[in-house]
Structures are given as C-alpha cells and as structure tokens.
Amino acid sequence: MQHQYSERKYIISGIAVLVSILYLSRLFYLQIIDDSYKLSSENNSQRQVTQYPARGVLTDRRGKILVYNEAAYDLMVIPRQLKLFDTLDMCRVLEITPEFVRKTLKDARAYSRYKPSLFLKQLSPETYAVLQEKLYKFPGFFVQTRTLRKYPRKIAAHVLGYIGEVDEAKTMDDAYYKSGDYIGISGIEKSYEENLRGTKGVSIFLVDVHNRIKGSYKNGKYDTLPIPGLNIETSIDARIQELGEKLMQNKTGSIVAIEPATGEILALVSSPAYDPNLLVGRVRASNYQRLSEDSLKPLFNRALMAKYPPGSTFKLINGMIGLQEGIITPQTKFSCNMGYHSGGITVACHKHPSPLDYLGSIQNSCNAYYCNVFRDILDDRSFGSVSNSFSNWRRHVASFGFGSKLGSDLLNELPGFIPDVPYYDKYFGKNRWKSLTVISLAIGQGELGITPIQLANMTATIANRGFYYIPHIIRKIENRDSIDHKYRIKHYTTIDKQYFDLVVEGMEMVVKAGTARVAYMDSIKICGKTGTAENPHGEAHSIFVAFAPKDNPKIALAVFVENAGFGATWAAPIARLMIEKYLRDTITNPELEQRILDGDLNSRVNKVVAKKRK
C-alpha cells in the first residue's frame, strides 16, 4: 500500500513538472518567439511612418527648373487600430463613396491587419486641412506626407517622363519598393530612377487611444532621416525646346537637336505633345486614358520611336559611299531628263540644270544622279555579286548609327530599319533581285525606316566630319564626377574625312542657292538638306536636316513634319528658327515665325481623310 502511494507521488510530481514545462515553453514562445502580441501592443501605442525623400530636381542646361516637387498627402490606415467611425462624414470630407471605403478597408485587411496600407492617395492641401481637424474621429487612420512632381514650363513631357505607383512585380523584385510607392515610368524619371528617388527614412511616434500623435518614440532615437534624390542637369535648352513645341503645335512630327561636339540633346520635340502636369496626382489615370485614346497619339514619342523614310536627306549618305568606294569623283556628272529611266522604271525628278556634278547634285537634290550612283555601287563587279556589294553598302550605312539603337539614355528608343540581304532574299528569292529592284533606296525611299534621333545623329556626324557621340540627355548628376563614360567615346564612320568636307560644301550650297533658300541667313552659315518623303497614307512628309555654323558647329538637327509636302515648305523654316533662337537668342523674321505658328496641318489632314472616306 505504501509502495502504491509512493508511485502516485512520483506520477503527480511528473505531471506537475510536465505542466510547468508546458507553461514555461508557451511563455517562452509568446515572449521570445511569437511577437504578435508585442506587435499588437506596440501598434496600439506606436506608429511607424515612412519618410519619403524628395525626388531630385531636373533643370535645363542653363539652370532653369524643369521639374520640382510639391507637397501631397496620402491617407493611410492600420486595420488593427480601426474602431467604429462615421463613414458618411469621412465620405463628405474626402468626396468618396461608402462602397469605396468598404472595398479599400477589405483590401487593407487582406494585406495586413498590423501594417499601414494606403487608403486614399494624393489629397490636396485643401482636403488635407479639413481632414486634419477631424482625424481624431477616425481611429486607425493617419496622414503621410509625400511629394508630387510639378512642371512650371509645361514642356518636354516626352523627355522628362512621369512617375506612377509601383506595380506588384517590382515590389517582389526590389525590396526598396513597397505597395503604394512611386517610381519613374518613362523618360528621364525612368532612366535615372535610382539617382532621382533618394532613400526613404522612418519616424516612430507615440499615439494615444484616439490615434493622435503625442510625441516621438524615445525622442527619435530609432528614427532615420530620408536622403533626398540627386539633382540632375539635363542637356535640354528650355528656350528652343519651348519654341520647337510651339512651332509644332497643330502639326504631327518631331524635332531633334544635338550639340555635335558632345552628343548632348538640346531639344527633343514630339508632336502632338501634352502638358506633363496632366499625369500628376489623382487625375493621372483618367488623363492617361484620355491621352491614350486620342487619335493623334500624343503619348507616342515620335522622336525615338517613329520610323520614316528619310527621303532626299539620305542622298548625302549614298553620295559619300560612292566617293569612298571610288565609284564617283567630285567631278563625275550625270544627266537628268526629268528623272531616271531604266528597264521600264522611272524615278521622277524636278526641273533643274543638267548634267550635274557631285556638289550640284546635292544643291539641286537630283534623283537621277543618285539613282546612277546607287546602281553603280551595287553593280561594282569587284565584289563578285550584287548581294556582296549590297552588304558592303549596308556596312557603310550602319556606321552612321542607322538600323540599330544608338544607345541613348532615353529608354524607349527603337532601332529603325535598314534592309539586309536575307530580307530581300526572302522577299524576292536568292539571286533573284538586282540593283534596279531596290532602286528606291537611292533616294531614301523603299524599305528604309529612320527615326528622327538617328537622322539628327547623322547630321551631327557630318558636322563633326566623320564621327559622333551617342546622343544623351544628361549633362551632370549631383555629387558625381561625370556621366557614363560611353557618352564620351567617339564613334567613327567608314567614310574618310575628305568626303565629309565635300558634302558640307554641298549642304552650304543647298541653303545659299539650292532647295532650302528659305533657311538662308546672312549672319549664320547654315548647312542643310531638304527631304520630301513619299507617304502611302497621304501627302508627303516634309523633312530637313541642318547644322550651324558651318565651322565649329554648335547645333545639328532633324525636323520631320508629317503630311506637310516639300521639305522647304515647313521643315526648313522650322529648323532656321530653331537655329537662330539657339545661337542668337532671338528671331529676326517674326513673319516667318508667325506663318509657322499659324499653320494648322492636322486640321487639313483630317479634312482630306474625311473627304476620302466620303
């Protein structure tokens, strides 16, 4: 019997020890391992508020502000701290619906009951002022200060780009971003996001039972300050960017201007354009939809993405290839009988003196001359076949940056298109095409697809007499010694310098006494070349390339005006005005400027399209 009681004593003691171990284990788990109670307690008495840094300011090359920051306010919610509140009162203050409140709170709870979620973004200062007075009535809610971008000049939307909320994929890929954060979506904002965004900080506050801030937690001992983004000086000259956008109002096309000596982009105009302030704040989504549905496609960056046949401006390339390959000399002459005629094919030309030598062919933009040159290039027997000579021709063309991305720091650049031998073999059959088959390439037509930035780069290459720097939009980043080294590397063409000197002479003759006399100025030596590119969808495109001054050039540009006719009618005058504004900071021919400003080509095109539909 005594032995039995002795066994019970050990069993009871064992149970007591086991229960004690279980309690101790549970206590250890709750206090050390599981922090949910601690988190709940801290969330009831503390609030961690992300301190967002101001994004870097963007200026033009003269220090004029293009983008700065303006205060905005996001309303945040912590579901665990929510208590009953007057929903209708909140709806009246914020101008939202009860359905919005219910759905947003449901999404917030699904995300986390303890972490802050975005309830309503980008409150106006006026709404914030009213809400601040009533915020104590809405437990669980607090306001977080943010910054929005502001554009004082309303220009360069395609260059500067815009910011928007980060998507879920980005938050999964990059730990820096959380739901509700903003990120660069396009333009410089996207290209230089890591420089512009800065580094977030955090502030920890003590709050009372009414969710009102009572002070910093431990006097800010655990707070971290945000680090502002880096300011960036762009290469844009706001004066000619603004002028270019005005001149291109009611027209479709683009202007790209480059400083030849550096490759810095002085102006990049895509028209139709839009006020960059439209894609800021809570109205961004509705405005974006409206812009994206616009038939004129104002969101489309034509300067980087549109492909055009370069028209007669491409004759400059074919002529230099002919000289380089020894196909022609500067004295070589060809006759023009109102065009080129061969094998039942006619490439028409306008009336001009005939025959012409090389310089005369540039001055008068003779189609027959360049059809002869092009055919002689491709029929050169030293290469063994048309395919081989064509590949050599394409090699020269590609050395000017055509047919591939130039590598600009604006990320949406497209490569354009230069056909190659496999392309024609697939279309016509191997060894079943010849020089006459692709004769349209001689005058910049056919399958050629050139972007405006590529044509401006070609012009800068000629201005430099044979080399170019990759076009780029940035001059200086705060606290950085220099920009990316790749923008300091010279890219040489396959054409010898002596032939560039000749083409420059011809381009000066174009402006002095050729097809672009409208661009002539006594005070500035402008070298240019007109282009009129055939357009199967309507009237021809007006194109002009130019640089100035002739010696030690400061600006090179390409102008495209869609459905506008001859290059001398619209593109050349626009280029002249841009050059004068950049070099002299003035316009000496206000009548010419007014004619361009008054030109409403979009309305004219719409009328033609409507008439055709009838």
Summarize the structure.
With 614 residues, the protein is α+β, with helices and mostly antiparallel strands.
Description:
With 614 residues, the chain is an alpha+beta fold. The protein folds into 2 domains: 46-234, Penicillin-binding protein 2a (Domain 2), CATH 3.90.1310; 238-283 and 299-613, 3-Layer(aba) Sandwich (Beta-lactamase), CATH 3.40.710.10. Helix content is 38%, strand content 18%. It is built from 22 helices and 20 strands. The longest helix is centred in the N-terminal third of the chain and has 32 residues, at 2-33.
Question: Any key phrases for this structure?
Answer:
614 residues, 38% helix, five-stranded antiparallel β-sheet, elongated, alpha+beta, Beta-lactamase, Penicillin-binding protein 2a (Domain 2)
Q: Low-confidence spans: pLDDT under 50, at least 5 residues?
A: 36-41
| Total tally of structural domains | 2
Q: Residue share in helices?
A: 25-40%
| Major sheet description | 6 strands, mixed
Per CATH, the class of the largest domain reads Alpha Beta
Q: Briefly note the CATH topology name of the largest domain.
A: Beta-lactamase
Tell how many strands the DSSP assignment holds.
20
Helix/strand/pairing class, anyone? alpha+beta
Mean pLDDT: 91
CATH architecture of the largest domain: 3-Layer(aba) Sandwich
First and last CA, distance: 116 Å
Task: Classify the beta-strand content into a percent band.
Answer: 15-25%
Number of helices: 22
Rg is 33 Å
| CATH superfamily grouping of the largest domain | DD-peptidase/beta-lactamase superfamily
Described by the principal axes of the CA atoms, the overall outline is elongated
